[in-house]
Amino acid sequence: MPDTATKPCADAAASSGDFTRLDGDGVVNFDFDAASVTPARLAFLQAAFSGGPDTNLNDRVMNQSVASGLVDKNWGVSSTASLDLAGGSTLRLINSYRKWTNDQLDGDIVFLPVPLATRRSLFDSGSQNHELQFISPEREWLGGHFDMVAGLYYFEEKFALGEQLNMDTQYCNVLVPAGPGRTACAAYYASTGGVAATDQDVYQKVRSIAAYAQGNVYISDALTLTLGGRWTNDRKRGSYSQVSSPFTQTIRAPEVLTYPGLSESRFTYRVSLNYKPADDVMLFATHSTGYKSGGYNSGGGVPSLSTFDPQGNLISTRRVFDRETVKNYELGVKSSWLDRALTANLTLYRMDIAGFQDRAFDGVSFVVRNAGNLRQQGFELDLVLAPSDRFSLSGSLAYLDSKFTDFANASGVPGIGGRQDLTSKPNSFSPAWPGSVAVDWNGDIGSTGLTWAANANVAFVSDQYVGTVNDANPQSIADGYAVLGARLALNRRDDRWSLAVFARNLTNTHYRPLAVYQPLGAVLGLNNGAFPGSTANRIQANEPRTYGISGTIRF
Question: What is the pTM of this model?
Fold first, then answer.
């Protein structure tokens, strides 16, 4: 009798590695929104700070003291090994290791034309992933009615973060009140050069393990049920240390803390039903759950985010935030018509997020906290009309109804502070109507062996909040806009090489991609100028009309 025990039949292995180094000294252009303060305060800034910040939101000009530098190194190795088993199943082992270091200098961190302070940030991460998968043959078990994948997963990361704020030449004159304090500050600067006036060290170790399985039950040729589940356990440990000179404690409060250990387990699942009433039509319904583990706040705070008793024992801390959970529902159709010349896909969805991890700004730094519950629901429509393989017209349209269902403890607007109830308000970066339209056309250039391809596209988005804080500040509302792009390429028919000219934002449309609050706005007297609760805003410059030439060679 032949040996019928499970045994290796074939195997394969592959490995790869990569290395990237980035050097540079660029800065992001955040212009000052003159409408966010009173004319009197703007005149004060212009008189006190060498003409003040640049207030033209539609140019590429900055007026601020700049100190910048970057050295970013990222390398990794990975391997995949597969072992085919008798019966058609496969065992697969995936391993990877990645190392990332980043040393960057940015300033002036107050974005003003005089040198006040610079920041040196240091990042050091080493992580490893290991995953063992079991993959069954497709539609061969239980008489062709079942297949599955299952696996074990391990992740570990050791992460260190450092931040040093350096006082610059005008720090004491601007940010320390006149008198003995300013005199002492000047003496401190003279003796130290202001280097590392604040020094932060954060360490974190993360370990995550998981076991998962997902199976497809083929009830009939037209009906498929998919069931999946994943159990995850996350553990985190770490420490926080912030040292600050007597003259910088208004922006970085001293604080030393061993983070409370976090250990949490969570089971998440997915149920999906697919039905094909015809070869070119598939209806689907899905319910799934998700999970984002809790973590630690690493940003400096004022006042300290932790309180201690006289003996140094921890009483409470805002350096820890809890997990975020998600329930997701989808209902949709994927279809093709007119002999597959027309593709039409529609998805209706609802996502309910509990324990939303909100990123709040306290005027000096950002703090993540569990702020409430959020619902994101709507639809996504994708259409492609391709009467031939030479020409296609595609479009997408989405509707998003974003609403906090419970947000009674939201951040107050900057000029008032405290808390406010933002229940029923939308989340940031959640436009109601985004979409795009594109035309693609290609052809041969006679018998030269060359081809051409042309593309024109437009992307549009409606009004939305673009601030980095969920506080429903009307100053953070950005008007909707549309951006036009195009590309014309020359290719060798076997795709060995290509040469293209391209253009983005052809009409040079001006829009607001991101709004941030002016650092130290309260200290500079910039709050409550436009209206009660307002503050000075900085607007990131959008990408202007851009055109260029690109080339590709494939070996």
Answer: 0.90
